[in-house]
Amino acid sequence: MSETHFGFQPVDETAKSHRVREVFDSVAPKYDLMNDVMSLGLHRAWKAYAVAVANVRPGDKVLDIAGGTGDLSRAFARKVGSAGLVVHSDINEAMLRQGRDRLIDEGLALPTLICDAETLPFATGRFDLVSVAFGLRNMTRKDKALAEMNRVLRPGGRLLVLEFSKVARPLEKAYDWYSFNVLPRLGQWIAGDGASYRYLAESIRVHPDQAELKSMMKSAGFGHVDVHNLSAGVVALHVGIKC
Ligand SMILES: C[S@@+](CC[C@H](N)C(=O)[O-])C[C@H]1O[C@@H](n2cnc3c(N)ncnc32)[C@H](O)[C@@H]1O
Fold first, then answer.
1. Cα(232) to centroid of ligand 1, in Å?
2. pTM for this predicted structure
3. For ligand 1, atom 8, which residue shows the shortest CA distance?
4. 68 lines ligand 1 (CB under 6 A)
5. What is the pLDDT of residues 196-208, one digit of tens each?
6. Is the CB of 71 under 6 A from ligand 1?
7. What is the tens place of the pLDDT at every residue in 68-87?
């Protein structure tokens, strides 16, 4: 069994997916509130930017991977209309249930599917666009997941990866202080779980930076990859085209 990381801890690959599941089982009920508080609402702007870049059209077929509580799925569903398709998917049932309930409350009944990004249950070339927001970092075999995302896209289709990335150097110290001192306390106070938010801070530090992720996407079969830094690199949007 190969070794990987759960935050800063080296763990074997099977242990990682169990630990990630525990994190999202624990935070699911307060996930949306925590996102707003810890990012001061900025996650909404990052997601709105990704949706604007995606520029999906009525009739498009979209797969939202690691869709969680459904922010991107909801935005895409409004754009593709009744002729299109948005599949809201995630490996974690608790997160998916939160999302599905929220979408239904807002009048959107989307196909909702529990699935692992590393083995997608879809035919080759099925989608015009695949998105994964703040999910890739948690996956065990990121290269395998990226190859699967590539496989299910049609030629010319695009993958959007919105993820925490490498912050600009002048902000590093302040960002580290916030991540390791404030975030776990907020997590403890709001979600009753400081450890999961410490994992969040650690997982960002061991995630590939902008250049490395771009090269991983190219190796997975994306002929062209653009990188958009957001908030000085706190987050990056990678857009890959399946050529
Ligand atoms: C931080 S949440 C992001 C949720 C949502 N996309 C958003 O931006 O608010 C990360 C999600 O990745 C999911 N995830 C982790 N590993 C996964 C995998 N191998 N396949 C699919 N989803 C995965 C988790 O269950 C969790 O819901």
1. 23
2. 0.97
3. 133
4. yes
5. 999 999 999 999 9
6. yes
7. 999 999 999 999 999 999 99
